[in-house]
Amino acid sequence: MKITPIKTRIFLEDENLESFIDEHIPHIQENSIVVVTSKIVALAEGRTCDDDSDEAKEKLIRQESEWALQTKYAWLTLKDGNLVASAGIDRSNANGKLILLPKDSFGTAARIREYLRTKLGLTHVGVLITDSRILPLRAGILGLAIGYAGFKGVYDNRGKPDIFGRTLIMSQTDIADGLATSAVICMGEAAEQQPLALITDPSVEWTDDPADPKELVIPPEDDLYRPFFENLHN
Is the domain of 38 the same as that of 67? Predict the structure, then answer.
């Protein structure tokens, strides 16, 4: 597998994503995934607001979240089934605005994939839309897949034997977030100006079936970390 970050010009609000991808990635081969950062997807959708004040940002965070809790450094929120900081609302690289998360990342990924398939005549091609996240009790940022198309997001090992013949009961591999993290490492988070990347020859299961936005989501009541944080809070 190879990941190539793509240096681009600055993407402007309300621009066309497909044209931007054509401009910067003119050659895409079979068995490739086009990676698009969520920020330019949101800009294409016009998902921005004026950065007037912290109070206005707090109101927006609450509006954009299913659940929100103020913490020492940021708001901890549940957004589209993902635990993220401040509902994904970001001031970085926003030129004085607040940029929200896209409205429908899975729909956008499917639309871009269909465009690439039709235009380039590709069969095994995918699209991955990334954001960033933090893990509990770990420093630093990892990638988060907030939308994808063309490949299975989870590889299910349940029911299969391990090397000693023991049947695996709960083991699943998070393919989509693993690819997102790998891409985000290469693309950068600061002034690299690399909102696109191309993954060639990834080890994925290709599919034409629509991606299930709930494929990676675990209900809060079933999450492994929930009892720990409930006890820590008490």
Answer: no
The count of other CB atoms within 10 Å of the CB of residue 158 is 10
Pairwise CA distance, residues 51 & 100, whole Å: 11
What is the tens place of the pLDDT at every residue in 14-54? 999 999 999 999 999 999 999 999 999 999 999 999 887 88
Both tokens of 28, joined, read 């895409």
DSSP annotation of 189 reads S
Instruction: Specify whether 85 is located in the same domain as 68.
Output: yes
Owning domain of residue 88: 48-101
The pair of three-digit structure tokens given for residue 71, joined into one six-digit string: 């913490």
Question: Which residues partner with 35 through β-bridges?
Answer: 128, 197
Alpha carbon 110 to its chain centroid, in Å, reads: 14
Judgement on whether residues 152 and 56 belong to the same structural domain of the protein: no
Residues 6+ apart with CB under 8 A from 127: 33, 34, 35, 36, 109, 110, 112, 113, 116, 147, 148, 149, 150
82 and 108 inside one domain? no
192, 5 Cβ separation under 8 angstroms: yes
